[in-house]
Amino acid sequence: MNLNLVDKHQSTIDTAVRALHERTFFAHYPENPSPDVYGEHADKEGREKYKAHLNQKFEELLQQDPEAWVGQEESPYEQQPLGVKYPFFSPETLVSRAEEAYHQWRKVKPADRAAILVESLERLRTRFFEIAYATMHTTGQAYMMSFQASGPHAADRALEAVAAGFEEQTRFPEAAAWEKPMGKYNLKLNKTWRAVPKGVSLVIGCATFPTWNTVPGMYASLVTGNPVIIKPHPKAVLPIAIVVAAVQKVLQENGLNPDICQLGVDADDHLITKDLAEHPKVKLIDYTGGTEFGNYIESLPGKTTFTEKTGVNSIILDSVDDIDKVAQNLAFSVTLYSGQMCTAPQNFFVPAGGVKAGGETVPYAQVVQKIADAVTALVNNPKAGPHILGAIQNPATAARVKDAASLKGKEVLSTCEFQHPMFANARTCTPVIYEVDATEKESYSRELFGPIVLVIKTRDTAQSIQIAKEMAQNYGAISCGAYTTDPDVKEQIMDEMGLAGTPVSFNLTGGIYVNQNASFSDFHVTGGNPAGNASFTNPEFVIKRFTWVGFREPAAG
Amino acid sequence: MNLNLVDKHQSTIDTAVRALHERTFFAHYPENPSPDVYGEHADKEGREKYKAHLNQKFEELLQQDPEAWVGQEESPYEQQPLGVKYPFFSPETLVSRAEEAYHQWRKVKPADRAAILVESLERLRTRFFEIAYATMHTTGQAYMMSFQASGPHAADRALEAVAAGFEEQTRFPEAAAWEKPMGKYNLKLNKTWRAVPKGVSLVIGCATFPTWNTVPGMYASLVTGNPVIIKPHPKAVLPIAIVVAAVQKVLQENGLNPDICQLGVDADDHLITKDLAEHPKVKLIDYTGGTEFGNYIESLPGKTTFTEKTGVNSIILDSVDDIDKVAQNLAFSVTLYSGQMCTAPQNFFVPAGGVKAGGETVPYAQVVQKIADAVTALVNNPKAGPHILGAIQNPATAARVKDAASLKGKEVLSTCEFQHPMFANARTCTPVIYEVDATEKESYSRELFGPIVLVIKTRDTAQSIQIAKEMAQNYGAISCGAYTTDPDVKEQIMDEMGLAGTPVSFNLTGGIYVNQNASFSDFHVTGGNPAGNASFTNPEFVIKRFTWVGFREPAAG
């Protein structure tokens, strides 16, 4: 083992642990893709490296003897296959190799594991642009989001998990001398404790955020001594394949088995997720994706699971300083990546009596119209629209937007064909807005993934809060945006949405959006409602991956 | 609220938090029941207070309008009903009162909650002897164990849970100023976080350790802001009823609703546990008891559960310094409270080739005989036997000891009628020892609750370890005792039993036993095998009782 890695990275880890507890702004990886930060040719080289993968075998992985070469990715921008082929291994092979690697990795000290993992992130830093292009052409994210979410933001979330895992494993002493006064003598025991990793870990990725949603569970399992099998979504493999390859390389350089971290892709003709998840040797499962499959994962006996499923996110409009700024902010939130973020707002609760703005009241209909107009203006702004909307990852999402007309609601804003200026074949659609009556719970009590906004007219803000809370408690929520200038209403929203395990962003305008979550400060998903049982990165996210076991023996003499 | 309680108790809480992390010896409540510590008349007064409860209504609780008065306890020493009657409330009443109390209690700050709870423990300190007699005459524990386990040791486990809960709720800031450099300007958000308690908590007690096994979950739920319903075993109510009454009194004195902590006893003609456990408002469940019911509890959807079920605890004999001292130590462990401890050893693995002792080898048969002889000597020692054995809590346990003859094994030591010197009608039985072949897994792969020892002859220590690990992984284990003078064998046992989530005590002789677990040092149950999913008191035991929820808003200016 190259022990210099601890010297090299321990201060980064210690800084990250402090950041977790201060929760002020902290980022280890700069989010600005400028040449000043990443080098003059970084973008161009990244794009070339991405292109060099196309129609080739991805041969960087150190996993031996593939059973086949498979791949079914296609670019939402070009609607053409990427043609990248990945090595396929049967679930049994993946699990037995992971189990073997487990007995090596679990004996590496937490500090060494953490340093090895940070080294892998430092290597990835030089590949952020390559990962960005791979992310664009699998997820449909726009360039800036692809760079930030899959590169520096993902790396910071991974570092966060490493820091939390390192901290929790070193929170109790490795050894203690226990001496109990018994009156005539002292009873002396030497005690030691070990954080024993639980075993093979499976991380199931999603198609929209292939690295950002995968690396927290991946690095949390690794830092706590568990071997991982990364099962990416079959449509979004390349970005995380690059990450896995980087980890394998650092493992090998340090004399460790690269199978500690394996990529396990689906076959072209069948999915392997259930076979992996149900394998008795698989003890930990991280999952991002739809609710139905997530509920299945949570129900598997004998597994410790970490899920992020879906939710219905609310906007509560009560009172504002400037309704136009609010409308612009919300328009951005629903347009960003065409509503394909788990944090995108869906249900907008607007009181029938309108929204107080300064000394006046903006009537309900005018509030709705201002939001619709702001969306239209944003989408039609050629300098902004394409760079915010991106493309639609999955044809089903585009279909869902069209089907929104079947909701029991009134159309406020229809979707339009959107011609992407750079990609003539891009799969796109623009946000739709429907008005739905508060009594039509069927319509708004499920996630309509994609750029679909439902405006729900309520009696008053009290009803808005009550329904938003009920939705979050019963169907899950990952974010909530609220606008109020009344401190009592604010406290009421905090209290009620807090009970529903839902974080709330108040009065956002300008360059900060309800969709955004900052590493080292914002817990992503709370684990406290049906949107998911885990949180990036609270202590629970790491401590459930190992067991504290104590040993004791009488002290000599 | 009497805010002086924080001044009064915060240093105790801080000391306890430190002790949790140092894991050296720490006890806040003295375990010695001597007059020097607890006062000249403490024992006599405690006995009188206990007697005053008999055949009376227990009217100390502050819960209003009971629907009936019920009670079915009987003394294992006297085999007569205690005649104490407790107020009965329907599950619906208990849960709706808890839900109402929740919205008061959750708004009390963690530091205030912790101080109120420590105050309740300080009040109980004056009632340890009363609780001790109540414990004796419900559980059958001998006097010393009744005092220590139900009094100071339980209070220390409760303090441990309070300390851990306080620490976890204060590990992240209540507020932070987040300021992100954006190049031309800084983005400023004010952020706050709340630890939101999950809701109504149910704590299901057992008949053998009515306070020790109940107070950790009870105090852990309370300190994290959840109202609790204590559902004791119908045969062991009085000890925990006294604890609940003390908490209620402190709550009321501080202007709080006593229903924050309710006693919910079974009706005389039906049990209410399932109705409570399945109630949708019940979010947290702590359970101590048999595996079958524990598995049902763990399987309930939408609940966070903390279980201690049963396990098969092993002794691995490899090599020793002094076989006689080892035999005496083990004899004590199996005799203590007639094997009715969850930590009592059951399966003794002895190599066919015997046990190395100093330069010699003690043959297998002689090892077995020495253990049997040591049990016989201990039981027949009139100064020790009755004070170690106690009485048998449940007639089913006595029947199980008699039925052990039906195991496919050879009787080494038979049970005998044991006449208790102080209680002529005491239900007693002495340990039995059977030899079972290693191939007869059916016989030894389940917990035989009570004083039943199975000696399993193995090929060698490697096989002993392999079977002990397999038993722990498949059927659970709470303790393991191992005897070896070989460092390599020791490491092998730590490694293998660690993988089975089982703590190991090595080479215990003299006045320390595998059954014993020290608060603030030994994690009790690891949560890492089927013996239970929770541990007294690791961070997981408290953090799963609340949700971190964040709130944010742009900073002015």
Automatic annotation (TrEMBL), chains A, B:
Swiss-Prot/TrEMBL keywords: NAD, Oxidoreductase
- What is the name of this protein? Phenylacetic acid degradation protein PaaN
**Name of one Pfam family that matches:** Aldedh
Residue ranges of every copy of the Aldehyde dehydrogenase domain listed in the record: 94-497
Domain of life, per UniProt, equals Bacteria
